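Thread: "does anyone have the structure for this chain?"

Original post by V.I.:
We have the sequence but no experimental structure in hand. Need at least a predicted one for the grant figures.
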Amino acid sequence: MKTILVNISLIIFILLGCSSSDEVETPNKPGNNGDNYTIKGSVKSSNTGIANVVVTDGANFTTTDKDGNYSFKISETATHVYISSPSGYTVPVQNSVPIFYTKLTPSIREKAVNFELIKLSSADEKHYFIAVGDPQVRNETELKKLKPILDFMKTDIASSSFNPVHLMVTGDIVFDTPNMHDLSKQYFTAVGQAVYYSIGNHDHLQRKDAPATDQWDGPSAKTYIEHYGPTYYSFNRGKAHYIIFDNILYAGGPNTEYSVFITQEQLDWIKKDLEFVPKDHVLILMTHSPTKSRYKSNYGNSSALYALLDGYKNVHIITGHTHYNSVMADQTNITDHIIGAACGGWWEGPVCPDGAYLGYKIFEINGTNVKWKYRSYEFPKKQFSVFKPGKRESELIRPSQELLVNVWDWDIHWKVEWSENGGTFKEMPRYTSRTYDPISFEYFGAEGDTAFPPGRTWIGASPTDHIFTGVPSATTTTVTIKATNPFGEEFIEDIQL
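Reply from O.Q.:
Generated one for you, tokens below.
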């Protein structure tokens, strides 16, 4: 009887200690509750201490002294200590990932947390980065489709003398397949450059057997953090300060719900991080979802982020998520570059849903000047597609008598012109109401149709606003297209009708 009573008591104890199915174990966040304690360490390069390096636990900050040493109080609930690597240096890289962080464990907390910097072999006042939109791979078959893009990128870096250079991946590294992170990193490692990653909605862990709740946002980032480190961090190159953050609030649930939202924890951290950045520096931010576009002035609570960026005259935000390519260059200090997905239409065709050919975007930072150019790996010298007049696949595409030009990375500072039979160039009108790219329509169909691609009919072409039109005269045999980008570079193509 005594044994039975003990067993019953044990069962009751276990049941009382267990969470109900709709409760979520929320991980501790930096700066929330818990007693503070002091951690110390150093930041060195070749055994020489580096002064004024910013060190953080995700909430609290300090800088190294003249000998490269630091000491500061961090929250008992902090999970990482990490640095914002200074200009002129980089950090060790493991399997494509920059190791700017140390995970805090009970044993680590009793020791000094030290960081090693590697001095760059060349000055970084002028440097480059390559932005890669959503790879979103499900399996190795899709990684093998990514490989030609990465192979071309490696050759492009060498032949174009992009040095120093790093990569930035806008999230959705995988497609709800956390087992693919290791293999994905191996493919990116082959490029031979450091890759800075952000987290996308498909990088969060699904949990379809429980109700959606914003409390799942933290736990769902666990696998990403194990592979890439903190979901928000910063580093420096030349006079550019880079900030990566997470603007996906992931609630999960049966329908994998999420929203575009920057947590207050991150906004507070960004505000403190910027206290170390002079106002005359360039800011490069990367997150997954666009903060604004030509179709909407503000997504989620992005206006709260914009308020923190006030006073910086040259801000560029690198995003992905939509799979189409677009640049929101308005009259403000902030330009949002939506990078067309590396996977385009989820690896179902050679273009993105807006018709931009698969590729990546190259940025050149020279002091505080920023230039950029989209690069198709199949057509590296081109910046637009041309569609001759002729029969269209659907009445949803523009009339057959029109010549269409899709300028993949167009913004309001481009100039697009055309001439007939070698005559005077004239400006091409643009479809501001958005229309379909014929190749994209061929592969993906209209938005909302259920005919194709086979087995993945949820994929659809995205109507775009960067298509231009002209109707050649009946006697025209040759049309010349001239597109001039914001930096005065001309791209010219002759079309035989």
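V.I.: this helps a lot. Residues 120-376 form a domain with the Purple Acid Phosphatase; chain A, domain 2 fold (CATH 3.60.21.10).
O.Q.: and The chain has a mean pLDDT of 92.
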